[in-house]
Amino acid sequence: MSDKLDKIDLSILKILQDNSKITNLDLSKRIGLSPAPTLERVKKLEQNEVIQSYHAKVSPEAIGLNVKTFVLVSLDWRKNQARENFLEQVQIIEEITECYIITGEADFLLKIVCKDIPTYERLLFKTLQQIDEIERLKTLMTLSTVKDVKRLPFDYDGEA
């Protein structure tokens, strides 16, 4: 789909990534089209799943989620359906906000957000370590966030 996006589509994506609450009228003024074709383009981007969702970015600290960890997970591949069973468990653990299959020293990378260290400790020992398919866990504790950009890095001017 990316090779079918023109300069106007790319401009729409850039603007919506910066501010998804912009009105269609304001968006149309910024991209130089009238409101009807602007809305038509946005709908097409949604239908083609280029735009997957709109949501509020909530400050974790503002709602009392003060601990963010990344956990490297190595599975015990001798267990039947290790991957499938592990992924089923990941889906139901609310504190796991992201899960990636990776290469290197582990099989998965989890991003976990919790209220505090005791909450993380309970999650680690009473939930994660109870998953039979896990062979090894390694926690990477974050101290602070120095960059958290949601805009994807691509040529928004269409001059690649």
TrEMBL record:
InterPro entries: ArsR-like_HTH, AsnC-type_HTH_dom, Dimeric_a/b-barrel, Tscrpt_reg_AsnC-like, Tscrpt_reg_AsnC/Lrp_C, WH-like_DNA-bd_sf, WH_DNA-bd_sf. This is AsnC family transcriptional regulator. One of its GO terms (biological process) is response to amino acid. It comes from the Bacteria. Pfam families: AsnC_trans_reg (PF01037), HTH_24 (PF13412). CDD domains: HTH_ARSR. One of its GO terms (molecular function) is sequence-specific DNA binding. PANTHER family: LEUCINE-RESPONSIVE REGULATORY PROTEIN, TRANSCRIPTIONAL REGULATOR AZLB. One of its GO terms (cellular component) is cytosol. Keywords: DNA-binding, Transcription, Transcription regulation. Residues 5-66 form the HTH asnC-type domain. Signal peptide: none annotated.
